[in-house]
Every structure is written in structure tokens, then in C-alpha cells.
Amino acid sequence: MNPVALITGASRGIGRGIALALAAEGHDLVVNYAANAAAAAQTASDCAATATAAGHEIRVEVCQADVADGIAREKLVAFTREHFGRLDLLVNNAGVAPTTRADILEADEASFDRLMNINVKGPYFLTQQIARWMIEEQASAPASGNPPKIVTVSSISAYTASVNRGDYCLAKAALSMLTPLFAARLAEHGIRVYEIRPGIIATDMTQAVQAKYDALIANGLTPIRRWGTPDDVGRAVAAIARNALPFSTGEVINVDGGFHLRIL
Ligand code: NAP
User: Fold this and answer.
1) H-only helix segments in 1-150
2) CA of residue 165 to ligand 1 center, whole Å
3) Tens-place pLDDT, residues 55-82
4) Model pTM score
5) Rounded alpha-carbon distances, angstroms, from residue 191 to 32, 144, 183, 253
6) Residues 61/32, Cβ–Cβ less than 8 Å
7) Which residues line ligand 1 (CB under 6 A)?
8) Which end of the chain is more exposed for a tag (fewer CB within 10 A), N or C?
9) Catalytic amino acids?
10) All domains of the chain, ordered by start, with CATH?
11) How far apart are CA 103 and CA 95, in angstroms?
12) Can you state the percent helix, strand and coil of the chain, rounding each to 5?
């Protein structure tokens, strides 16, 4: 039986990269998205083709749900239970940037509330629901060898001040506490919890600031002088899913080209 992974925000960008990497390793998938049904369908068919090329037969289901909405989160969990009856991996990836970047002396509450709802409340309460289900599963049929896992995609913005998107930085800083909390709470149930902290990754989210980041990277912002790709993040999640870190939980994996290094 294939392991099953649920990836939020898998229609585009990093979530799509994670879905493709997991498909290549033979995971059945739930591809979640918010609004872009065509992109989600494309990801699903590309995942199926990727798995076939790698010699795996997988099932991919697509489920629309806004992670900020409690009823939609319940629907997403029910959908996963109904279609697969089990879950080995939750990837909290869905997230948004502010619609317009605004100096912290000007930024408004509406943008703050939107980001906190999607980027923090959504993954926190989805994780709570999934954790309860995983605990149930572990009590009835404990995983042998490869424990169930929860991976959350935060950002270098969790610790980097960008004064024209304070709401995003605050949301990612708050999100970074999700992993230690659930890692501590779920260890006794044999569930492992990790954070992936991407740097500057080429997706729709960063398209508007491409020229700015091109110049910063060329000038040495990241020791590895290139943009990251969704595949870079996908490979890191696939390694965790493969149980490459069996005696680690609550760990932060930086996928940032070395951005976090302090260099003298
Ligand atoms: P992206 O290209 O804009 O894709 C965002 C994805 O999230 C899409 O699949 C979108 O679905 C989905 N989504 C948005 N709001 C949602 C909601 N309320 N409920 C469910 N799904 C929702 O963004 P990305 O760059 O891949 O970012 C993915 C994650 O990585 C985010 O958490 C982001 O903060 C984080 N991150 C990104 C970077 C970067 O440089 N790109 C760096 C660090 C961290 P639709 O297609 O339906 O809109």
C-alpha cells in the first residue's frame, strides 16, 4: 500500500514541487488548492505521469479548500479520510504574501488579518485535526518503521525583518512555533514534526520582486548564488517522508542556499 500525503496549496509553486517529489517516490496524494482549479488538475496529472515514469502506480485526488476556513478544513480532512482512509504525511504549505507590500508605518489591519488567518490559523487548526486522526491511527495500528509526519513550510521571514511586509514576517514567525509545539505533544504517539524554512524560491509569489532578488543574489545575498526552486523544497520534504531523520523531531531544515549563515 502506498503512503498517503496531503499537501495544502499544491496547485502551484512550492506545493506543486513537493507533490511532484512525493509522487516520484510513490506517494498517493491529496492536492489541495484555494481557487485555481486548472492548475490543481495540471499538478495532479503531472504527478501521475511522474510516478508512472518512476515505476510507481499512485492515486491523486484534488480537493478545493480554503485553509483559513474551519468548515473547509473539516471538509478537506473528511475528503482525505473518505478517499484514502489513512494519512502518513501532512504538508502545511499553503500561504500567501500581502496583496500589496506596505511600510509598517502604513500597513492596514485587513492585510494583517488575511495573512494571520491563512498563514497561521489555517495550518495550526488543520494540524490539530490531523494530529487527532494520526493519534487514532497510531493507537489502532501503530506505524512500524516509518512514523506519520507533519511538515510545515515557514520562511526565512520567520527571523528576517522586511519592513514593507511586517504582517508576513509576523505570520511566519508565529508559524515557526507550530513545529516545536506539535513535536513536543505528538512524540509520545510516534508522530514526527518538522519545519522546512525556504529562502528565495522562484514561484508566482516572488515574480513581482524578481529583478530586486536577481540583483541581491548576484551580489552575494545567498552563499549559493542562485534562486531556489520548488524542486529544492520538494527534495527536502521527500527526504523527511522517507524517514531520513528517524531520531529527530521539531527540527528546522533550512532550504535557503545558506541565507541563514552569519559570515565574517
Ligand atoms: P504561490 O506560488 O503563490 O502558491 C501558493 C499556493 O497556495 C497555491 O497553490 C494556492 O492555491 C495556495 N493557497 C493560497 N491560499 C490558500 C488558501 N487560503 N487555502 C488553500 N490553499 C491556498 O506561493 P509559493 O511561493 O509556492 O509559497 C508556498 C509556501 O511557501 C507559502 O507558505 C509561502 O509563504 C512559503 N514560502 C515561499 C517562498 C518563496 O520565495 N516563494 C519562500 C519562503 C516560504 P491557488 O492556486 O488555488 O491560488
Assistant:
1) 13-24, 37-53, 70-84, 109-116, 122-140
2) 16
3) 999 999 999 999 999 999 999 999 999 9
4) 0.99
5) 22, 12, 8, 17
6) no
7) 8-15, 32-36, 39, 66-68, 93-96, 118, 153, 155, 198, 200-201, 203-206
8) C
9) 168
10) 4-255 (3.40.50.720)
11) 20
12) 50, 15, 40
